[in-house]
Amino acid sequence: MASLAEMRAKLAQMEPKSSDKKATSQDNALYPFWNIDDNETATIRFLKDKDPTNTFFWVPREMIRLTFPGVKGGDEHKPVTVQVPCMEMWPGEVCPVHTEIRPWFQDPSLEEKARSYWKKRSYIFQGLVTDNPLKEDSPENPIRRFVIGPQIFNLIKRAIMDPDMENSPTDALAGTDFKLTKTSKGKYADYTSSNWARRESSLNDEQLAAIDTYGLNDLKDFLPAKPTPEGVRAIAEMFEASVDGELYDVEKWGDFYRPWGVDKPNNSSSTTTAASTTAKETTAVRSETGTIVDNSSDIPFEDDVKIAEAAIAPKGNEDKHAAILQMIKNRS
Description:
Blueprint: H1 4-19, E1 40-46, E2 59-68, E3 80-85, H2 96-101, H3 108-117, E4 120-131, E5 143-148, H4 150-160, E6 178-185, E7 188-190, E8 195-196, H5 205-214, H6 229-243, H7 250-253, E9 284-286, E10 292-294, H8 302-310, H9 318-331
Antiparallel strand pairs: 1-4, 1-6, 2-3, 2-4, 4-5, 6-7, 6-8, 9-10
């Protein structure tokens, strides 16, 4: 595990870039902090990554949301979203979606559309929930996973860069608990009042025994699998269909990525695992906004909800939507 100084050094190095529920893996290992009531606090003790080469105690994940007005041969009038991994998560790889949309930001009329397809970054952590306000069945393995969005992550990062924090928050003897507090800002959840405990503390014997018994997770195991070339082509095709307002075609793309609740095509003979992060292994949860999201998605904070809503033109804006599509095609 890297020292706090090494974490700080690497974060500082990265700063310029950041500007520009029987399968235990599918039980309640993922902690749904978004279900906490307003003005309640969960206390979390983050744990280090099993991977000794990971400088941090989290791994970033970048996903793209492709929206469709419905499913071909299914409910053709119920909008669906498909999440696909951004190829830029893997060094040296080219993302077909971002290659296409980056020039759109130069055109004010296309900027909103470009933002709707821009990758959504979240961070995967693991740890212990030492004070849990949720009435839930505790998993046998108390080591939970957390999918943290940018709002909370920035609080974590800011504390690590604070010279007053002398030890890594994950230190077994002198670590620091994170107090995750949920409030409301308008009709959306807000977590900006979350903070770190004032005092350092040691893990107790029970917590240490849990780590010894169950072991730490290699956080990168919870990242999406890298798509094969066929998977990348499917992502490019789905993106183009999404932009054109076409229906999601399960026969064409069901072996790769699917909306939640949509099964593989009956004639599927594919044995590839390029889309091992498809909806087949996810479980639906309801966010604080009332939106159904799957367990692999980031929690929809205000910006995410607005982007998702903007991706499909509302009734009455058909002409505007068609005009935007024509502009995109003309630029191509």
